[in-house]
């Protein structure tokens, strides 16, 4: 019995080491002539860092609790992004997986291993950052927390099913089924933004700002499933580097540009944004200062 027990950890360790290591993937991205791919990660780390500094600087004079809540949501978008892009850069959230039979990239080789490079860390970015985008948009539109949290739940479901689509190797049909399921969740979010929140922004008085933000967000978000379909995870018309840059450009638009447009508006704390001292209080008049 002793040899069997002693060998169990070794077997587990061997199983965990299948495929390229983080160091090998890092070397593949940064030392293997993949400059375009590497830049798609590094540029976003720099932009996320600059956005964080910009929010801290521009938001230092905010006093209204609702304005502060929006600014905090905007800040957390970039906090998640800089963390997730660092994971991609280090190779921690990259993997090489073999595509199922019938996939256009089946039989491909990456970093000396059978399979294609999958940037599954991007799905972590979207899972944790898009809820904060929706929180900021919902608050700017003047929506209620029930509707905001519902959209957050749908966006998490959308990102998780997208991750499942990217990592499913057992069946090509199941990969596309995960993609369709995620797209349905996505359309629910689009409906809320374009219909419900647009009407609420009209009543709140933020319709001009919200119109710009929703167009950048919705048009940009439609680009993600299109890239997925065209990229190596879908029909493999675009290579990994071009797909990665496509995602990075969309992140720049829907995160950093949207963040600064919203922030420049709320720093003046117009009446359409401010919530007053009672904002967030359970009982009117019981608002607590967070200075």
Automatic annotation (TrEMBL):
It is a multi-pass membrane protein. Coiled coil: none annotated. Gene3D superfamilies: Rhodopsin 7-helix transmembrane proteins. The keyword Aminoacyl-tRNA synthetase does not apply. It is found in: Membrane. The keyword Membrane applies. One of its GO terms (cellular component) is membrane. GO terms for biological process: phototransduction. Keywords: Chromophore, Membrane, Photoreceptor protein, Receptor, Retinal protein, Sensory transduction, Transmembrane, Transmembrane helix. The chain crosses the membrane at residues 39-58, 70-88, 123-141, 148-170, 176-194, 215-238, 244-267. Its main location: membrane. It comes from the Archaea. One of its GO terms (molecular function) is photoreceptor activity. Belongs to the archaeal/bacterial/fungal opsin family. This is Halorhodopsin. It comes from Natrinema hispanicum.
């Amino acid at each position: 019995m002793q040899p069997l027990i002693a060998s169990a950890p070794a077997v587990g360790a061997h199983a965990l080491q299948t495929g390229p290591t983080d160091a090998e993937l890092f070397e593949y991205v940064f030392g293997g002539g993949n400059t375009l791919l590497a830049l798609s990660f590094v540029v976003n780390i720099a932009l996320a860092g600059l956005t964080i500094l910009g929010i801290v600087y521009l938001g230092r004079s905010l006093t209204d609790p609702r304005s502060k809540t929006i600014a905090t949501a905007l800040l957390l978008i970039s906090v998640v992004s800089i963390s997730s892009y660092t994971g991609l850069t280090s190779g921690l959230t990259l993997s090489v997986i073999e595509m199922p039979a019938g996939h256009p990239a089946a039989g491909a080789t990456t970093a000396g291993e059978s399979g294609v490079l999958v940037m599954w860390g991007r799905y972590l970015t979207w899972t944790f950052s898009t809820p904060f985008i929706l929180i900021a948009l919902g608050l700017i539109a003047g929506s209620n927390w029930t509707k905001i949290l519902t959209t957050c739940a749908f966006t998490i479901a959308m990102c998780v099913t997208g991750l499942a689509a990217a990592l499913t190797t057992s069946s090509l049909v199941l990969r596309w089924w995960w993609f369709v399921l995620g797209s349905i969740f996505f359309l629910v979010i689009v409906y809320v933004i374009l219909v419900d929140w647009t009407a609420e922004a009209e009543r709140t008085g933020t319709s001009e700002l919200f119109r710009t933000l929703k167009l950048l967000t919705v048009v940009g978000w439609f680009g993600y499933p299109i890239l997925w379909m065209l990229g190596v995870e879908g029909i493999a018309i675009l290579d990994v580097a071009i797909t990665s840059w496509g995602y990075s450009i969309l992140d720049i638009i829907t995160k950093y540009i949207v963040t600064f447009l919203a922030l420049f508006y709320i720093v003046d704390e117009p009446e359409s944004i401010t919530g007053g001292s009672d904002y967030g209080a359970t009982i009117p008049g019981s608002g607590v200062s967070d200075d």
